[in-house]
Amino acid sequence: MVSPAQSLRDQWKEPSDIFTVLLIIGGDIVQQALGAVSGGFLTPVAFSYGWVAYAVSALLSATGDGRLMPETPITNLRVINLKSGYCRWNRSWVLGRVFQDYEHWMPSAVRERLEEHPSQNSDEEKKVSGLLPGGRQPEVALCVAVYHWSTEGNSLARPGHDWVWWTGLLVSLIQIAISAVPFGIYGDWRVFLVTVSGTVLAYAAGALPGWRKEKWACRRGSGKDVALTLGNGTTHVVIVHGGHPDGLDLEDLAGAEVRHSGAATSNRRSISRMIESCNTTRFFITFLAILWLVLLITSQAIESHTWYLVGVGGLGMIQNLIVAGAPRFPEMLGISIELSESSQGTPSVFAEYKVMYTLMELELGYKGFGRALLAEFFPGKLRDWEENWWALTDNEERRVILDEKKRGLQR
């Protein structure tokens, strides 16, 4: 009979069945990683723990709505059409991730505007400082930055290739190299077989055309001006100015509604649409899930050199975590935008110590934008002078009144 101490030593020397157990945890991380870098034919998400769990959960989804993309990371993000004023809740993972990472990709001009004093002149500065405890400087109450679609490159609705994307290929090569060690030294090819098979299945799952169709499920060239915000009480509003002939309809994208095309006009289009169809996606998800279960059963036969397999899976899990959580620039997610400039060449950033002043400055710079956001940030009754200001049509008169109010800080 083996003693308890000897049993523990044997387990740490050659851990048995641990890889089989680890394969069924962390499926949500795999889905988040796939969502971050998918959209092209090559989706480098490394083989790791959690792939079997993800395959089973994807199979469950396939029997329902057949969706691949994860849920949006920000459930309370509002998408406002600045022409109609219509507001809808965002369901798109891409838009949610772009806004979630805003602190990371925020242009330096916006960051500097937030850090500097929002007042405009010395008289105003003295007046505002006198109202705050200790004469401290006021902070920005609302910052609105206006962006437009970038014309450089062809990065709209296409995944970008940054360091996050390249880690997948690098880690996959390292994993195969690690698994080849027991094959080359001891002639044990089982670890190598499981690693290569898992890598092929992982890349096949990411290559499904349904990822691209769901990730950027929207029309193009609508020319809509759209604002992204968390609503009243938050600091940032991101406005994307339309006008680009291939610009994405972000209001449409927020609905995350996958549309299925009608009859094809050619054999090539017919084949393409058949591959992208919901039923075809369900079939491939089911087929891949079966193969993952076969791989899970196969891995149980590995009783020696298991530390190599554990190392392969652990390295892949680290890569999955990095891809799932690393902040990305919008162009890496297929939303290629740049900070706009005014006619004077200054960045289109509006940040004041009062929310109303920010919206008024925005309205003076972009007619209709401030008014469209007014109901979101001021759902109640306005002051008399504010109602009169918004009723005016002469921007010069508006400017005079706003400057006087800011200097006097009348409440």
From TrEMBL:
<feature type="transmembrane region" description="Helical">
    <location>
        <begin position="283"/>
        <end position="302"/>
    </location>
</feature>
<keyword id="KW-0812">Transmembrane</keyword>
<protein>
    <submittedName>
        <fullName>Uncharacterized protein</fullName>
    </submittedName>
</protein>
<keyword id="KW-1133">Transmembrane helix</keyword>
<feature type="transmembrane region" description="Helical">
    <location>
        <begin position="308"/>
        <end position="326"/>
    </location>
</feature>
<feature type="transmembrane region" description="Helical">
    <location>
        <begin position="163"/>
        <end position="185"/>
    </location>
</feature>
<feature type="transmembrane region" description="Helical">
    <location>
        <begin position="191"/>
        <end position="211"/>
    </location>
</feature>
<keyword id="KW-0472">Membrane</keyword>
